[in-house]
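User: Hey, my collaborator sent me this sequence without any context and asked if I could get a structure. I don't really work with proteins. Can you help?
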Amino acid sequence: MQDLSPSAATAWQVAKGVYGYVQPDGSWWINNCGFIDAGDHSVLIDTCATERRTLALVDSVTSTTGSAVRTLVNTHHHGDHTNGNFLVPGATVVGHRKTREAILATGLNKYEGVFTGNDWGHLELRPPEVVFEDRLTIHAGDVRIDLIHPGYAAHTTNDVLVWLPEQRVLFAGDTVFNGGSPFAVMGSVAGSRAVLDVVRSLDPLTIVPGHGPVCGLEVLDRLDAYLAFVQERAEYGKSAGLTPFETATRTDLGSFAELSESERLPANLHRAYAELDGLEWGAEIDLRDAVVDMVKYNGGEIRCFS
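Assistant: No problem. I've predicted the 3D structure and written it out in structure-token form, which is a compact way to encode the shape of the chain:
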């Protein structure tokens, strides 16, 4: 069996002084992070869902670079990328304005009764202290880091692409999943497709996705095809008078069944239905109904290994 413990994570050097921190197997709550060696300090991109995973991450950063983390960037508000923020006390946390707002509004993300198997440890809420609206540039030694909000909802309302233009490395957050089903219930299905064009326009050589192995642009067509499939199924379901859950149960995933987290389909359909009803990308919907349908589709609580 694959080792899914925190010790299985690997710091991959994707450019000089630039690392992708990849946690197998990239399923629920097991995210990727990144860090940049700026010489006298380090810049960290995201933390992890649990205390032990974040402590392992910070240890990897300091042992690799020999310097402490002074800046921490959050790619969006979800707990698998932010729950461990408080465990990097010497760093200033940077994120989108809506990331801060969402973390303060929702508190620590654990979703009790939805997921089982998580070992949260001791966590405390810590939102970004420095926020921006559209773009922000950070300089880490000789490395330029451009933080880019696409201007609309995609995976969430507050996604941030972390782009290193000289190295052509992109830390994509959860706008890109490699091997997993995209998840758009808190953002937009249409926006999740649109942000892929932003990623393409940057023309990265290397992408560190929010979950799954380091990759390149070759993964985007598959993600776009899945999201288009969700939209097509939503159109079918609404025209047939079916609920999102009923549509999901009548859907043959075909080749998309190879993507992990197939239980995300009914939740994604809830968002696609809302967009067919004319709701703006990222507008509030009843997330409880979407999550309940996802658990029901799964046949019970979703197993996690974080």
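In plain terms: The radius of gyration is 18 Å. You can pass these tokens on to your collaborator as they are.
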